[in-house]
Amino acid sequence: MEQALQESIEVLHVDDDPDFAELAATFVEREDDRFTVRTATGADEAVDRLEEERVDCVVSDYEMPGQNGIEFLKTVRERSPDLPFVLFTGKGSEEIASEAISAGVSDYLQKGTGTERYELLANRILTHVEQARTQQELEEREAHLRQAQTVADLGSWKLDLTTEELYWSSEVYHIFGVPEDESVSYTRFLDHVYPEDRDTVEAAWTAALEGAEYDIEHRIVTDDGTTRWVHQRAEFEVDESGNPNSAFGVIQDITEFKQREQRLREERDRREALFRNPTDPIIEFEFHEETPIIVTTNGAFTEVFGFEAGVVAGKPASEILIPADEESRTRHQEIKQQVLDGEPVDTTVSRLTRDGPREFLLRVFPIDTTDGRRGSYAIYTDVTGDIG
C-alpha cells in the first residue's frame, strides 16, 4: 500500500461481536503500520470513545443492540459531519446501502471470508482519511488566507471577460463596504471609483487588455460615502488565439499609507517654510519619554546661541538652553508639560546665548512626528531691548 499519509491513523471499529472486531483490527493493522484500531461493542460505548479519544475513521457493523449502524451513523454525523464512516456489515441489501448513503456514509462494504476483504477495508479507510485530511488542510489554508487578507487589508477578485461575471473575496466586499450577499460586476466596481479617478482607471484597464501592466492606485467611494485609497494589480489569462478571456487581481486598502504620506508632505512643507531664511532661531524637538530632544536647528540658532546643528542634535534641551537657576528649570518643566498636552506656548523666557543671558519671546507649536511621537517647533524672538 502506498504511504500516502505520514501521520498515524486512529480507527474505531464498532461491532457487537468482540472476537470478530479484534480479528478485523489485527488484519487491518497488518496492512499498514500507521493503523491503530480500537474496538467498541456498541454505539453508546463508541460515542463515549469519540468524545474522549482522537478518531480518524469509524468502521461500524449494521446489526447491533441499541442503535443499529445507520442510527449510529446519524448520531456521529450530528457531532462530526466530516468524520469518515465506513459501514462494514454482513447484512447487505440495496435498501440498507441506500439508507446509509442518505445518512452520509463515506463507504459501504460487506463482510466476507478471506483476508482480501480486510485489505480492501484498509484501502478504503486510508482513502477516506486522506481525503478528509486534505479537505481539512485546504479549509485551514483558506481560513489562513482570509485572515491574512483581513490583516493586510488585501482582497482578491476574478473577472470573466466573456460573461462579465465578477468574483470578489470577502475582504474586497469589506474594502468597498458592500454586503457580501449583493452581486457585483465591473460596472458596479466602476460606480464605486472616485469620479475624478474614473477616466484614469478605465484608461489603465483598456491598456491592460492590450498587453500593458495593470498596476494602479486610485480612490474609491464606499457604500457609506467614505473615500478610500486602493492599490490594484492584475494578470490576464488568454485563449488559444492569445486574446484575454479572464483576469485575476488583488486589491489592497492603502488609505492609512496615503494618509501618512500626506501628513509627511505637509510636515515637510511646514518645516521647509519655517526653516527657509528666518532671522529668528528655530529648534525642532522630539519627545523621548517626555524629554524634549533636539532634532535639528536653523542657521540663526547657530548665530545666536553659538552651537552648530550637528553638535546639539540628539541632546536634551535642558543641557543646551536652560539656565541652571531653579526658576528657569521650573518654568522649563511647565512649558514642557504644556507642549505634551498638545497646547501651543507663547511666553517670555530667559536663555543663555553666546553673548550671555537674553530675553526671548518663545513660541512653541506641538506636532505629531511621522512615527507617532510628540514633537514641537520652538521659535525664539529676541526681545531683550523691548523689556523694561
Which percent range fits the helix content? 40-55%
**Class derived from helix and strand content:** alpha/beta
Tell me the span between the first and last alpha carbons: 103 Å
Strand residue percentage: 25-35%
Shape: elongated
- CATH class (first level) name of the largest domain: Alpha Beta
Spell out the key features of this protein.
3 domains; Rossmann fold; 388 residues; 13 helices; 41% helix; 15 strands; alpha/beta; elongated; Beta-Lactamase; 5-stranded antiparallel beta sheet; single chain; 5-stranded parallel beta sheet
Characterise this structure.
This protein has 388 residues and is α/β, with parallel strands linked by helices. It has three domains: 139 residues, Response regulator (Rossmann fold, 3-Layer(aba) Sandwich), CATH 3.40.50; 101 residues, PAS domain (Beta-Lactamase); 124 residues, 2-Layer Sandwich (Beta-Lactamase), CATH 3.30.450. The chain contains 13 helices and 15 strands. The strands form three sheets. The chain has a five-stranded parallel β-sheet, with helices on both faces. It has a five-stranded antiparallel β-sheet with strand order 7-6-10-9-8, sandwiched between helices. Strands 12-11-15-14-13 form a five-stranded antiparallel β-sheet. The N and C termini lie far apart (103 Å). The N terminus is likely disordered.
